């Protein structure tokens, strides 16, 4: 999906990182193992294998099946019901490939490591258990898309940011039996199917390396496209403390920006009067808690204050009885597009048009931390991964963690 082609992916990273905890995590003696939820709660899944697979329960073999065969798993009370190449009910299953170069598959997609499945609250929980470096193989290219050899430094930067993220957030779902989620709650992880040679090389070259500030893991925000300048946390998130390494950074280069190669560097969204009223009548009550009737009588929308990076820090919706304030973290969701998705960025200029509204925007995503398309542009310009990271996280540095 190129570099964060879907806004939902960018929002997923935003949500996950916004929950990151302060890190006092010590350096590890060796490479950690991660438990990544492929499906935190699902009613059905299929497990197969490129080679022979054995399923165990409590460390003892339960059944096995051959290459290309599959079993269908569904919840049955508190047990896992198995049908297909094997059958029966089990408390908890652990699937292991018997071929070193062949992988267990989940719904047809191959994954390194092993797969755990059990029932929690009436739904299946499907978790991939694997080493951190193997996890990163399925993250880097899924986040950055296919890249050329000239852009390897951008992949290396992503590998170190993603490794830092995994270490900092490991265990935040510990009560649910896993460390991270594979989708929007954390960073994109797509298993073997999204791995590329360049992404694999980037992970190999940076093995064990992370981004630190005064010896502690940074909060490693990243996004698709900054639009010329990265954002301060206050412009994008609630309950995220400012940090010296998270201040706005210019992405300017000559007459443009390093990230102006992004297909979403500039964009326009237009709402006619009816669309604007309908959207704000839906989003303002749900997100801001205001009365739906008041939100429906829209007379105008304007940016009242800009943040440190120039993004909209406060938008005002003019209604019959006054004005409704919308602050930075809510701007993208409240000003949803006519299609219903969040606005690409809060770096916007608003103008009224025939009773409707036009937003001219730059950038894609929350804008805090590393700009992925900017990293690609900087790599093309000859910057190495360390330079890229120290630019987007000023004062931070690269360190070997294990």
Descriptive tags:
7-stranded mixed beta sheet; 33% strand; 25% helix; 402 residues; disordered N terminus
Indicate the overall shape.
Answer: globular
Number of helices: 10
- Oligomeric state of this protein: single chain
Relative strand content: 25-35%
The main sheet comes to: 7 strands, mixed
Distance between the termini: 31 Å
Strand order of the largest sheet: 4-3-8-11-12-1-13
Give the beta-strand count: 26
Structural class: alpha+beta
Uncertain segments are 1-24
Q: On the 0-100 scale, what is the average pLDDT?
A: 92
Helix content: 25-40%
How do the strands and helices of this protein lay out in sequence?
Layout: H1 7-18, E1 33-42, E2 45-49, E3 53-57, E4 60-65, E5 70-76, E6 79-84, E7 88-90, E8 92-97, E9 104-106, E10 109-111, E11 114-120, E12 123-131, H2 132-144, H3 152-169, E13 180-181, H4 197-205, E14 209-213, E15 216-217, E16 222-223, H5 233-236, E17 252-253, E18 256-257, E19 266-271, H6 273-288, H7 292-296, E20 298-306, E21 312-319, E22 322-327, H8 328-334, E23 348-353, E24 356-362, E25 370-371, H9 372-380, H10 385-392, E26 397-400
Parallel strand pairs: 1-13, 16-25
Antiparallel strand pairs: 1-12, 2-5, 2-9, 3-4, 3-8, 5-6, 6-7, 8-11, 9-10, 11-12, 14-15, 14-26, 17-18, 19-24, 20-21, 21-22, 23-24
3D structure, described in words:
The chain is of the alpha+beta class and 402 residues long. The chain has a domain at 266-362. It is 25% helix and 33% strand. The protein contains 10 helices and 26 strands. The chain has helices at 7-18, 132-144, 152-169, 197-205, 233-236, 273-288, 292-296, 328-334, 372-380, 385-392; strands at residues 33-42, 45-49, 53-57, 60-65, 70-76, 79-84, 88-90, 92-97, 104-106, 109-111, 114-120, 123-131, 180-181, 209-213, 216-217, 222-223, 252-253, 256-257, 266-271, 298-306, 312-319, 322-327, 348-353, 356-362, 370-371, 397-400. It has a 7-stranded mixed sheet. A 6-stranded antiparallel sheet has the order 7-6-5-2-9-10, with no helix packed on it. It has a 3-stranded antiparallel sheet with strand order 15-14-26. Strand 11 (114-120) and strand 12 form a beta hairpin. Helix 3 packs antiparallel against helix 9. The chain is globular, with a radius of gyration of 23 Å. The two termini are 31 Å apart. Mean pLDDT is 92; it is low at 1-24.
């Amino acid at each position: 999906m190129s570099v964060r082609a879907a806004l939902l992916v960018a929002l997923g990273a935003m949500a996950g990182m916004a929950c990151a905890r302060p890190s006092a995590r010590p350096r590890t003696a060796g490479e950690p193992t991660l438990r990544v939820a492929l499906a935190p709660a699902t009613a059905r899944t299929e497990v197969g294998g490129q080679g022979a697979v054995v399923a165990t329960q409590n460390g003892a073999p339960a059944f096995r099946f051959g290459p290309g065969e599959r079993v269908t798993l569904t919840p049955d009370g508190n047990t896992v019901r198995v049908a297909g190449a094997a059958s029966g009910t089990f408390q908890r299953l652990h699937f292991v490939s018997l071929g070193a170069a062949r992988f267990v598959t989940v719904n047809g997609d191959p994954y390194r490591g092993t797969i755990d499945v059990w029932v929690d609250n009436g739904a299946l929980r499907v978790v991939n258990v694997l080493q951190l470096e193997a996890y990163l193989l399925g993250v880097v290219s899924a986040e950055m898309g296919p890249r050329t050899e000239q852009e390897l430094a951008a992949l290396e930067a992503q590998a170190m940011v993603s490794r830092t993220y995994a270490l900092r957030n490991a265990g935040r779902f510990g009560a649910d039996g896993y460390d991270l989620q594979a989708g929007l709650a954390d960073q994109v992880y797509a298993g073997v199917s999204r791995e590329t040679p360049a992404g694999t090389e980037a992970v190999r070259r940076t093995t064990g390396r992370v981004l630190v500030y005064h010896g502690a893991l940074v909060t490693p925000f990243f996004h698709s496209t900054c639009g010329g300048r990265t954002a301060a946390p206050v412009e994008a998130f609630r309950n995220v403390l400012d940090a010296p390494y998270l201040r706005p950074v210019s992405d300017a280069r000559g007459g443009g920006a390093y990230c102006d190669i992004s297909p979403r560097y500039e964009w326009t969204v237009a709402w006619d009067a009816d669309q604007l009223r309908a959207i704000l009548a839906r989003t303002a009550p749900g997100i801001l808690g205001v009365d739906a009737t008041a939100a429906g009588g829209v007379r105008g929308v304007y940016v009242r204050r800009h943040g440190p990076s120039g993004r909209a820090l406060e938008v005002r919706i003019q209604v019959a009885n006054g004005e409704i304030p919308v602050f930075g973290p809510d701007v993208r969701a409240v000003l949803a597009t006519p299609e219903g998705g969040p606005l690409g960025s809060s770096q916007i200029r608003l103008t009224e048009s025939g009773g409707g509204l036009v937003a001219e925007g730059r950038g894609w995503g929350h804008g805090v931390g590393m700009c992925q398309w900017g990293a690609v542009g900087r790599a093309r310009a000859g910057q190495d991964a360390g330079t890229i990271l120290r630019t987007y996280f000023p004062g931070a540095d690269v360190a070997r963690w294990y």
